[in-house]
Amino acid sequence: MTSHPTSDSRVAARRVATYAVVVVVCLALAPWTAGLDWVGNAYIHTLHELAAVLLALGVAAIALLRFYSRKSDTFLLLGTAFLGVAFLDGYHAVQASSVVTTGPPWSWLASRLFLAGFLWWSAPRRLGSPDEARLDERRVYLLGGTVTLACFAFFTFTPLPSVFFPQLVLHRPAELLPAVFFLLAFVRHLRWGRWRQWAFEHWLMLALLCGLLGQVAFMPLSSRPFDTDSEAAHLAKNLSYLCVLAGLLGSMYSLFRKADESAAELGRINAKLQAEIDERAHAEAERDRFFDMSLELLCIAGMDGYFKQLNPAWEKVLGWTLAELKGRPYIELVHPDDRTATAAEGYRLRLGGGSLDFENRYLTQSGDYRWLSWRVVAAPDRGLIYAVARDIEEQKRIAQMKNDFVSVVSHELRTPLTSIRGSLGLIAGGVAGELPEKARSLVDIAAKNSERLVRLINDILDVEKIESGKMGFRFMPVELEPLLEQAIESTRAYAAGYGVELRIAAVAAGARVWADADRLLQVITNLISNAVKFSPRGGVVELATARGIGDVRVSVTDHGRGITPEFRARIFERFAQSDSSSTREKGGTGLGLSISRAIVERHHGRIGFTTEPG
């Protein structure tokens, strides 16, 4: 429930006004009742007390019911107090017939003192919440019963003097003793402050006021049994019981209403949860259907190294049953040469790594191995790994056939092409005699094409070496400035043919890297030749080096037309060439940048570009 300060203050003000009205009315009635000569009788008195007994029993029953529905010391003490008071009020009602003959009994005072004492004891002693149950209920019952029986025995068997002192202004001064405890209890509840928000506490405050005023404004002024002040005090007592009963009934009603609201809310929550459960069950059923229908190898594995769930595609690809695959650690199925790399990927996943892509070979039931390509993500909080595997055995076989074919063809073609290129060079040089102009032109064309074929074959062989891991690297400290100068010298004649100037724009003095000098020179030379081909005649290609944080950057800059946006994404792919006619005129195999990237990555470096078309 949301509480608003303004409304709370208004409620508190109205309740304070109610307390003030009760006090003023009782004090105003006191002189009036004292001046009346009306005197009741034992019958009326007995009716008062019987009503009080019934009210007290009702209060006790509801208070204890409230206590057992939600344990609280307040309701335990209240129920115990009114149980005892009901017994003492009943005893006081029985004594009514002997009041005229034996004198007024002290049982009235015992009942009031007993109730006032218990209400004072149950009142909160601090500003904290006393709603929790801290008292032993058996001890409270024992104490209440003991005090009740002690009062009964004392007033039954002990001869006592009259409670009236006619010579005093207050004819029954002993009545002020219960008033003190009523007042102390009222002050405690007032300081506690729950009467501002809690309706039951407000009614309890009214009951304390009625009890206090009955003991101060009426009963002390009573000069004889059954007079107006005495009967007014009895009415005030019954009214105080009614206030407590009203507060308890209101509290029970509020409790039941909250229970109904909670039950309704719980019903709504349960309905919502059931709908979510049904929706999730439906989604899981659909997921399982797709899981079973998928041609890909889907699996859920645990961080413990075992498969938890597999789809039927595994049986078709590997031949094992799903139970056999789940019954052994999945690392045992991995090819021995791939286990270290696979275990390393699993370790990365356990550390919270993102999605991973890798390949390995898996054992089939027939004893051979099949290549699988993996896409894996982990859920470390659940201890699970979700993966999709694809059978790429056929792709690997086709790729190997292609590589073998390219390798064989390249090796078989390079030797005769080298011989053809050398022979054409000798003929063009005049070894076989002076050639006619037309024949010389044809020989030059044949020499250039053979040179281009040799470069293509060399590039293909480099690609094959890189893919197979056979390209050797001799790493050593390499100083970059002499390497740039060597690259410029080796391509100066080529650049001159395009009318392009080569120069070093800036150098990081003393810059050295750990590299294979020949392979690094191959990369720089390739970048220079590309820059020259796409530079305008009369243009300049600039080389520069700059130090970074833990690395050195080598840049080759031309001033050509730039790289078109549609070509940028595939510029480092094999055989990638721009589709423009000008690019085709420049020639090239389309493998140079792909080879350069592979070499740079083997050096644990990066290669890229920046461009501005136009």
Description:
The chain has 614 residues and is an alpha+beta fold. 61% of the residues lie in helices and 11% in strands. It has helices at 5-35, 42-69, 73-94, 99-102, 107-122, 137-157, 176-192, 199-218, 228-293, 313-318, 322-326, 339-350, 393-428, 437-468, 480-497, 517-533, 565-568, 581-586, 592-602; strands spanning 297-302, 307-310, 356-363, 369-379, 384-391, 476-479, 501-506, 512-515, 540-547, 552-557. The strands form 3 sheets. A 5-stranded antiparallel β-sheet has the order 2-1-5-4-3, sandwiched between helices. β3 (356-363) and β4 (369-379) form a beta hairpin. The two termini are 70 Å apart. The relative contact order is 0.05. The model is unreliable at 580-584 (pLDDT under 50).
> Span from first to last CA?
70 Å
* Largest sheet composition: 5 strands, antiparallel
Average pLDDT over all residues: 83
Q: Classify the secondary structure makeup into a structural class.
A: alpha+beta
Side-by-side strand order of the widest sheet: 2-1-5-4-3
Low-confidence stretches: 580-584
| Strands, total number | 10
Order of helices and strands: HHHHHHHHHEEHHHEEEHHEHEEHEEHHH
Supply the number of helical segments.
19
**What kind of oligomer do you see?**
single chain
How big is the Rg? 52 Å
Question: In one word, what is the shape?
Answer: rod-shaped
Summarize the structure.
The protein is built from 19 helices and 10 strands. With 614 residues, it is an alpha+beta fold.
